[in-house]
Please model this.
Amino acid sequence: MINNLLSLLTYENIYFAANLGVIPFWLLLIFLPYHNLTNFLAQSVIVPLILAVSYAYLSFIIYQEGNIFDGFELYSGLDGLYSMFANEVLLLIFWLHFLAISLFVGSWIVRDSKRYFMPKVIIIPSLILTYFSGPIGLVIYWFFRIFFAKKISFND
Model:
């Protein structure tokens, strides 16, 4: 039975499940940011835990293959980064990392906006931009936040 399950855990299936799996949580953050269901599901440890298990599984595959640092050229320049992401396991690990971090940032935006009583309409563009382009959505949110917090703080 475990062999049947492992045969379903292809890189393509993990990629597909992770991409579709985060969408309901993003929809909760965008359309029901202050609802208890969103607080329980999208702002809990559930999604990061699932993504972390996938991350650990893929890391274990790399370890089993015996080439832990093979192709890991993250800091050797753009060509090294390009060759590193030619390895689909490392590319998928990076993608899971991106999904987890961007969802965490989206959850933080919702929690922080609630603290400053920001209207949903104001945070929706920031959340959508965070989903598609992480840091840009966060910076847009910070610009909106300045007006509601009535202060500029670089270490909040």
The radius of gyration is 18 Å. The chain has one domain: 14-26+48-149. The first helix runs from residue 2 to 8.
